[in-house]
Amino acid sequence: MNERLKDLKIPRHVAVILDGNGRWAKSKGLPRNYGHIEGARTVEKMCEVTWNTGIEYFTVYAFSTENWNRPDDEVSALMKLLRNYMKDSLKRAGKNNMKVRVIGDKERLDADIQKSIEELEEATKDNTGLKFTIAINYGGRDEIVRAVRKCAKKASDGQLLPETISEETFSAELDTAGYPDPDLLIRTCNELRISNFLLWQLAYTEFYFTEVPWPAFSEEELYRAIEAYNKRERRFGGLSPEKNA
């Protein structure tokens, strides 16, 4: 771990909304799709950086349920990039001992992408390094609706009594089941909203917003986010020690 962080509390789970790929490319006179390619490379780099920093869980918002509304050529390019990324991830995950999970509604994705996701998750399920989660065709509201349907189906089948449904039983039906909620959410490129990302899981997460576009995001910017996180007082609805004294 870097000396700069040795006395700081490292968040166990960091989630990132990857924003600014297209704007970064445009600022350099390049096509938007080039920004997405560079953004994918930044994800690769940050997987290694986060693990070396002591972060155990790293979740990125790669493609939302609303991103289908983008121009057809951009969506096609993103899907092509995703196909290549899945293949490369299989090699990297084995080398780096990384466990990969994909969350979101996979049914809308092409069959070959679904197969690649299944192969990647299966091949890495026993790895003990970074727990890396990629949100693809993901929307927080969609995830909650799907979880409600699962609970309703179990209730209808007599497997679940409605009065026994708790936050824990509901969380177990979410895509992120078994993983802790994010401690820190980072959003890049000066956007100040959560854009339908992890609506249930972000209830007590600390937010860090930066002007840096995702392709330019660096180890230094991650350190700044962690330093800002350490200045927050996480009370989870309770009183601060001073007020409780």
Give your account of this protein's structure.
The chain is α/β, with parallel strands linked by helices and 245 residues long. It is built from 8 helices and 6 strands. It has a 6-stranded parallel sheet with strand order 3-4-2-1-5-6, with helices on both faces. Helix 1 (21-27) crosses helix 2 and helix 3 (72-96) runs parallel beside helix 4. The chain is globular, with a radius of gyration of 19 Å.
Which features would summarize this protein structure in a list?
6-stranded parallel sheet, Undecaprenyl pyrophosphate synthetase, alpha/beta, globular, about 240 residues, 6 strands
Quick synopsis:
The protein is of the alpha/beta class and 245 residues long. It has helices spanning 21-27, 32-53, 72-96, 111-124, 140-156, 167-171, 219-230, 241-244, and strands at residues 13-17, 57-64, 99-103, 131-138, 184-187, 206-209. It is globular, with a radius of gyration of 19 Å.
